[in-house]
Automatic annotation (TrEMBL), chain D:
Keyword check for Iron: no
Name of the molecule in the record: Polar amino acid transport system permease protein
Gene Ontology terms, MF aspect: transmembrane transporter activity
CDD domains: TM_PBP2 (cd06261)
One GO-annotated biological process of the protein: amino acid transport
Cross-referenced PANTHER family: ARGININE ABC TRANSPORTER PERMEASE PROTEIN ARTM (PTHR30614:SF10), MEMBRANE COMPONENT OF AMINO ACID ABC TRANSPORTER (PTHR30614)
Places the protein is found: Cell inner membrane; Cell membrane
Family listed: Belongs to the binding-protein-dependent transport system permease family. HisMQ subfamily.
Pfam families: BPD_transp_1
Domain ABC transmembrane type-1: 15-212
Keywords assigned: Cell inner membrane, Cell membrane, Membrane, Transmembrane, Transmembrane helix, Transport
Any one GO cellular component localisation term in the record: ATP-binding cassette (ABC) transporter complex
Length: 265, 225, 232, 230, 265
């Protein structure tokens, strides 16, 4: 795998991936992380193929968020390696910026920029980071807003939208940068029940389009319907990974069984 | 011609006063301008807060202080003085019609106003132990409070009374005049001795040609012989 | 009152207002600059930078403004003039007292501004920084495009009072001898024996300015708040 | 070194004056402010709004100007000059206290009002739905919330008042700043007297903060003092 | 019904109700309410028998909270009447206080008094409103805290408890006044999923004890298990009321069906 990782890869965006489709999208090897003396992540190994859809679940504090934040370079880690599309993350700065251009991230708290309109939220990074000209940026933004089905809200401010709409804007904002991988950290858990559905639907659309997705969520229905594989974490370790059918109906680990009892009521 | 900047407080009549249009007038100004003419310098005037006027001189914000400054040993530690260009006497001043015994016994328990940091303050402190001193940042605030009646008397240089043109009750001097300082001098930076000597020479010339006497009389200042 | 104003005091007052407003405006501008720079410095992660900034704000907000102003004013005054004296050909140049006055006002107000910016900054959710990073913005871009606009939104009402404080602070300069509104009023009051006219004018100027200030900043706040209108 | 000690001893003569100005103005200011704020909250209307406008104006005018008006202007008014009021206004010390308390009232009343209106509505409703009366609700839900909300801004305001007392020297009150200034005018030494006075002021501020947060923790059980950004 | 409402009723607390058990606990007749020009509640009719357990549900903004706040006198209303245990709510002040003594209310945000300990929270109203002597008040409070299963937290402050524990304290605080009716406004919706269960269990205990309960909630499992009747509101009107079996399995109204599709995933 280290041989594959060192092949230089042209960055052609999410669609033109055929020639490198045997390169894993993400490869985490023996990764460990400490917060001070607290060992949050212990020896994580995870390989995600291109176009694969992974759901990560586990009890609170098990390190799910920390893991996917590491993939995006939002957190440092101390041991092991993370390779994203053949590019290793340990070398700092430049490489990190390159990786971030390929990896979109959506947070639990949406984190839209409250002082900008929906459209400006979607064009800002295109114009300043990717240097896309203004009118092109707006076209791309409107395209993505249509994809998440709220083009009519383009001129509003985030504060004027419902939670579900805000989260869909956050997804559109990420998509505008044409990432090849999307990371979601509990995208629905701060939403009212009625709004969860619309966001899950949007994510399902993405999954159908062949985007590589890693999603932390407790929506087990969604996981069952969408995921290629479910990764269960506890106390900083990956305890079990399996396709949804196997995971829900015949979990191997005792810890997984206990967790499923609690969550699926 | 070279440029010189002269400074004073701009509120110490009749030595220096600010007119309604913001320009200065007074004995200091007339003396200063005459000297400048004699030595052929291009002079401008600035004003500076009194308590900071010597540090400002040392910081080269201006070259000479011509501001009714009493010559004292404490000040000599920092600056050099010209020959005295006016003699000052200090008086007790009261509102016209007020009777006051100005001996230390008579003023015991009374409030006397004095300008902060002056030789007058030291004098009262030393000779009138039972008198309550009230210290003012400037002479005009002091006379204002005398008229209002917050102090029983002021002790200060005589000229500010005679120069007072404000409304309200008249102020008069009582008791014998006291010479608390060696006279009024112009202050220079110690490294400007040559400038000081030039000024002294010009003063001597004014003394002999009578300009100096005319100006003293114009502003009602005791002639210094 | 018209008489007094016509007899030259009117012009005096106009120039005093000019002086006060100029010093206040410059002081306001520079103190904000100081506030932003100190906040950045405190957050820069250099060893002790946060402590240094805290020390600055703590000490400067514990000392009487007038004491600080006198200290800084004379220090600066001497320092600037001494420096000028060292530069060949500049030794005769006299700096007006306004430069040290503006600088010392800015340094004193800068402590207030720094505290304001630090508080506003701390209120910005960590998620905003992370969203910026995960979209690939550089630190500078994220600062200018994302963080500062939001800090500005948070602190507008306080900026309004800071603006007013800037003007009020100029009153203290009258003690140092800068001919500002208060100094002009008190000289006028004493030399004409009509204190209420002069003090009245000065008070009116300050009150008018306070009203203007609150109006302007209420308007700015209104404009910023438009993104909160509506649901949620 | 011994010169500095002399300075220190001379300046310390003003400590009592500074402290008494500070404390007396603080107490009077707080009492007045509570009354003003309570009136505005309890009887909203044209009168309350006029009071608010007056407070607004006071907040907009520099203390120095107010000191000048009261000290040099008021004695020209016959009803002050020729009545018992003169016994108060003749004294620079009481003029300073009156001005300080007046300004303190203007700022503090706004802090009290602000703290009142920040009280969470839900807390009041919870008290109401338990059947508590109006006063009981105030006592159990509103007052603690006001303490909590008002603590930080009030601390800031108290410190500001402490600093403002230093302006009293402009009307001949010999407080810390007054003595420092006298030394300054006499010796022409700007820095040492002011630096010494500055150290004393910092000590006063540090102790004041300590006292306030201790008081707060005594009164408002069940939580520590909110972070004081002041 | 107005005849029944005018019969003066002795206040004997929730247990000694046998002689008046045919008086409805709550009776709302033709009640309408406006916020300014906005018609929040339109012509509400609702009769709740003693010991009955009602679950109110409906989309956000439909007026659920407003309705139950009216029952407790926290909101005024403009038309119609509300009669609680024979006592009409329109006459203000005194009567309102009497009604509040019979009706306990639990809010979404707990609203405990943060500066008082758990025990003080529970004894305060007893001592001030019902003038119960101190030691008796403490006994009653501890009894109720035991009922919600957190007697060991009595000396802590609300800020030191988890959300679920705080909500149970809020319930105990209400119960201490021995109300005959309990109103709940989305008591679990600001809780983490793991804490929802413990609060629902507490409420189920109450229901079993025969307390009259009106509860706004979206926990449909709870509604199905506990409720005698489910009231569905939309746009300020009561659209449908039915026993749970009927409501979930054969909703009559089309609006109800749409709502259920969304909520019950
Ligand atoms: N910046 C940090 N410093 C110290 N400890 C941290 C930090 N961030 C997270 N932790 C700790 O690391 C552990 C894992 O946190 P993480 O947020 O990854 O958990 P999670 O699985 O996402 O949980 P949740 O479901 O609650 O979001 C937790 O115990 C948390 O307290
Ligand atoms: N004080 C008020 N002033 C004006 N409008 C109000 C007020 N309180 C509530 N409303 C409006 O009344 C409507 C009903 O509000 P209510 O809180 O009763 O809805 P709800 O059914 O409880 O919704 P949710 O499920 O979101 O709590 C909403 O549209 C709301 O905006
Ligand atoms: Mg997480
Ligand atoms: Mg509600």
């Amino acid at each position: 795998m280290s041989a594959a990782a060192s092949i230089p890869m042209p960055d052609k965006g999410p669609i033109a991936m055929n020639d490198t489709s045997h390169t894993p999208a993400i490869e985490i090897v023996g990764m460990s992380k400490w917060f001070g003396s607290f060992h949050v992540l212990e020896d994580i190994d995870l390989k995600v193929k291109q176009g694969e859809r992974i759901v990560v679940c586990g009890p609170s504090g098990s390190g799910k968020s920390t893991m996917i934040r590491c993939i995006n370079g939002l957190e440092d880690f101390q041991r092991g390696r993370i390779v994203v599309h053949g590019q290793e993350l340990r070398q700092r700065a430049r490489a990190l910026d390159d990786v971030r251009k390929k990896v979109g991230m959506v947070f639990q708290q949406f984190n839209l920029f409250p002082h900008l309109t929906v459209l400006e939220n979607c064009t800002l990074a295109q114009r300043w980071v990717h240097k896309v000209p203004g009118s092109v940026a707006i076209d791309i933004a409107m395209q993505q807003l249509e994809k998440v089905r709220i083009p009519e809200q383009a001129q509003k401010y985030p504060g004027q939208l419902s939670g579900g709409q805000q989260q869909r804007v956050a997804i559109a904002r990420s998509l505008c940068l044409r990432p090849s991988i999307m990371l979601f950290d509990e995208p629905t858990s701060s939403l009212d029940p009625e709004m969860v559905r619309e966001v899950l639907d949007t994510m399902a659309d993405l999954a159908r389009d062949g985007m590589t997705i890693i999603c932390v969520t407790h929506e087990m229905g969604f996981a069952r319907g969408i995921a290629d594989r479910i990764v269960f974490m506890d106390q900083g370790r990956i305890v079990e990974q399996a396709p949804p059918a196997e995971f829900f109906d015949a979990p191997r680990e005792e810890r997984t069984q206990r967790f499923l009892e609690q969550v699926v009521r | 011609a070279r440029d010189l900047v002269l400074a004073n407080e701009g509120g110490f009549p009749p030595y220096n006063m600010t007119k309604a249009d913001g320009t200065l007038e007074g004995f200091d100004i007339d003396i200063g301008m005459s000297i400048c003419k004699i030595i052929g310098a291009n002079c401008t005037w600035v004003t500076n807060e009194w308590s900071g006027i010597i540090p400002a001189l040392m910081a080269r914000k201006f070259d000479v202080i011509i501001g009714g400054m009493g010559i004292t040993d404490e000040r000599r530690k920092t600056v050099v003085f010209s020959e005295p260009y006016a003699r000052t006497y200090s008086f007790f001043g009261v509102v016209e019609g007020k009777e006051l015994d100005v001996t230390p016994k008579g003023l015991a328990g009374k409030i006397v106003g004095v300008q902060q940091g002056t030789t007058n303050a030291k004098f009262i402190e030393a000779n009138y132990p039972d008198t309550k001193l009230q210290l003012y940042p400037s002479m005009d605030t002091l006379t204002a409070d005398l008229k209002i009646g917050r102090v029983d008397a002021v002790f200060g240089d005589v000229e500010p009374f005679t120069g007072d043109k404000g409304d309200g009750p008249k102020l008069v001097e009582i008791g014998e005049p006291v010479a608390v300082s060696e006279g009024i001098g112009m202050a220079f930076r110690p490294d400007d001795i040559s400038l000081r000597d030039e000024f002294n020479k010009a003063l001597g010339q004014m003394k002999s040609d009578g300009t100096w006497k005319t100006l003293s009389e114009k502003w009602g200042i005791p002639v210094y012989e | 009152m018209i008489d007094y104003l016509a007899s030259g005091w009117g012009l005096q007052f106009l120039s005093a207002i000019g002086t006060s407003l100029t010093v206040a405006a410059l002081g306001f501008f520079f103190c904000i600059l100081i506030g932003i720079l100190c906040t950045l410095f405190a957050r820069s992660g250099f060893r002790g930078s946060a402590g240094l900034v805290s020390l600055y704000t703590y000490v400067f907000r514990s000392l009487p403004d007038i004491l600080l102003l006198i200290l800084i004013f004379y220090t600066l005054d001497g320092a600037i003039q001494a420096l000028l004296h060292l530069v060949p050909g500049m030794s005769g140049v006299r700096l007006s007292a306004y430069v040290p006055a503006v600088i010392s006002t800015s340094i004193v107000l800068g402590a207030y501004a720094t505290e304001l910016f630090r508080a506003g900054w701390a209120d910005i959710p960590q998620g905003q920084h992370e969203a910026g990073r995960s979209l690939g913005f550089t630190t500078l871009q994220s600062l200018v495009l994302i963080i500062l606009p939001q800090v500005y939104r948070k602190i507008i009402p306080h900026l309004g009072s800071l603006c007013l404080i800037s003007l009020k602070e100029t009153a203290l300069l009258s003690i140092i001898g800068i001919p500002d509104i208060v100094r002009t009023a008190s000289i006028g009051a004493r030399s004409t024996g009509a204190p209420f006219v002069f003090y009245g004018i000065a008070i009116a100027i300050f009150v008018i300015f306070a009203i203007l200030c609150s109006r302007i900043f209420a308007h700015l706040e209104q404009r910023v708040r438009q993104d909160r209108a509506g649901a949620r | 070194m011994s010169v500095l000690l002399d300075y220190l001893l001379e300046i310390l003569q003003g400590l009592g004056t500074t402290l008494s100005l500070f404390v007396i103005a603080l107490v009077i200011g707080f009492v007045l402010a509570s009354a003003v704020a309570a009136f505005q909250i309890r009887f909203p209307g044209i009168v309350a709004r006029s009071i608010w406008s007056l407070m607004f104006c006071i907040r907009g005018v520099p203390l120095l100007l107010i000191l000048y008006v009261v000290y040099y202007g008021f004695p020209l008014l016959p009803f002050i000059r020729e009545t018992v009021l003169w016994t108060v206004f003749a004294s620079p010390y009481w003029c300073a206290i009156i001005c300080l308390a007046f300004v303190e009232m203007a700022f503090t009343s706004e802090i009290i009002r602000g703290a009142y209106y920040q009280t969470p509505r839900e807390q009041v409703e919870a008290a109401r739905s338990l059947g508590l009366s109006g006063f009981q609700t105030f006592r159990v839900a509103i007052l603690p919330a006001m303490l909590r909300n008002g603590f930080a801004p009030y601390t800031t305001e108290v410190i500001l008042l402490c600093k403002s007392t230093a302006l009293a020297f402009t009307i001949t009150v010999m407080d810390l700043m007054g003595y420092a200034n006298e030394i300054r005018a006499r010796t022409l030494d700007i820095y040492h007297p002011l630096l010494i006075a500055g150290c004393i002021y910092i000590c006063i501020v540090v102790i004041t903060r300590l006292i306030l947060s201790t008081l707060f923790n005594l009164v408002a059980v069940g939580g520590t003092a909110p972070e004081d950004r002041a």
